[in-house]
Amino acid sequence: MKLYVTAAIVSLLGLADAVYLTVEHVTGQSVRCTIVAGCSEVLSSSYAIAGGIPLAAIGAGAYFSVFSLATLAAFGYRIAGTLLTALVLLMFLVSLWLTYLQAFVIHAFCQFCLLSAAITTALTVIVLIGVIFGRKNR
Amino acid sequence: MKRILPFLIILAVLGVALGSAWYLSRPEPASRQTATANSTPSSSSSSVPSQPVALRGVPGAEPAHTLGPANAPVHIEEFGDFQCPPCGLFHPILEQMHHEFGDKLRITFREFPLYPNHPHSVVAASSAEAAGLQGKFWEMHDLLYEHQNDWKDQFDVRPIYEGYAKQIGLDVERWKRDMGSEQVAQRITLDGSRGHSLGVKGTPTVFLNGREVPFESLPAEKLRVVIQSELTAAGQR
Q1: Rounded Cα–Cα distance for residues A22 and B108 (Å)
Q2: Closest-CA distance of chain A to residue B172, Å
Q3: Can you tell me the distance from the alpha carbon of A82 to that of A104, in angstroms, rounded to the nearest whole number?
């Protein structure tokens, strides 16, 4: 229960980050080069769009789904807990791929994308703890 | 109540997320004095077009790198970084505007290298400025942008730039000396100081008759509208 609440709260951070990135992508603000950032290279690369949809928007949808599933699981919907674990693990794999792209293909890091990867990693740790302790308690 | 509570929470979060997205993406307030595709330029800025730009901020390097006549009704001043990908994308757009509007448009380029974010940006700016000392700034400017993808991820860009210098017929030995000269460094610093005094934080930043053009208005179809509305206000449709 507590883990699901924690996952829901953490996913809200990811949702805020992804919404911000989506808006920046759509309005083109982050696509401008700045003194501090590396988001311009990342968001203007061909990897920032999948099937015509900004990756950040897909990320926002994923974080919203995580929040919804975690909330439902916290209220006792067991199937939501299973779906949550599957979704978070999938997001973790996608995050690994995107971080690899930033490091070795685009050669630039976007701090907001890295924040998203960190949040997804935190969610992965939370759901894995849930899986491990869930088994022990059975 | 407990059965619908999680759904109410989810709906509330969805509402907040969509509301935040709408709030963040709304247009900037008019008080920021930006030139947009829908704005009506003030008559004071269009009657003597080059003055507002010159009057605001500290002066940049002189003589500035310009295209088009000094009395053109529309003056675009771009702060650019040769290693910045969006600047590379903006280059053909500005070139297109130059061809479309001809003598009605004056273009000024200002150096704004974003070092260390872009490690080759200062060398690229120096390369263009050194070419400028031989009267071939725009030729080097064009080559740097057109071939940005060939050099931006290279470790050593100097041999590539030297190839460009040869290609445009520069005295290469002089160009090499000039690249490290105080004069070239000074020009880049002065342009950068002008950018900072105008509040430039990133590239490309474009001022049109003294007002900043929002980044989302830089695609060709929108920039064309902004220029045309400025020309209309100046009575030079």
Answers
A1: 33
A2: 31
A3: 33
How far apart (Å, rounded) are the C-alpha atoms in residues A74 and B219? 47
- Residue A106 DSSP SS3: helix
Which one, of B196, B202, B168, lies nearest residue B87 by Cα? Answer: B202
Give the tokens for residue B10: 């989810």
CA A84/CA A134 separation, integer angstroms: 14
Q: Is B8 part of the contact surface with chain A (CB cutoff 8 Å)? A: no
Nearest chain A CA: its distance from B117 CA (Å) = 6
Task: Identify whether B116 is preceded by a cis peptide bond (ω within 30 of 0).
Answer: yes
Question: In this structure, are strands B202-203 and B205-208 parallel, antiparallel, or unpaired?
Answer: unpaired
Whether the model clears a pTM of 0.80, i.e. scores above it, the answer is no
Phi and psi angles of residue A32, each rounded to the nearest 5 degrees, phi first: -70, 145
Residues facing B67 on adjacent strands: B107
CB pairs under 8 A between A and B: 78
CB contact under 8 A, A27 and B25: yes
Q: Which of B34, B93, B117, B120 to mutate to test the interface with A (most CBs of A within 10 A)?
A: B117
Strands B74-80 and B105-111: parallel
Residues 179-198 of B with CB under 8 A from A: none
SS3 B168: coil
Residue spans of alpha helices (H) in chain A: 2-27, 39-43, 55-74, 78-100, 111-137
Instruction: Collect the ranges in chain B with pLDDT lower than 70.
Output: 1, 26-55, 236-237
pLDDT in tens, B153-177: 889 999 999 999 999 999 999 999 9
ipTM of this complex > 0.95?
A: no
A130 contacts: CB under 8 Å, gap ≥ 6: A3, A4, A7, A81, A85
Alpha-carbon span A111 to A17, nearest angstrom: 10
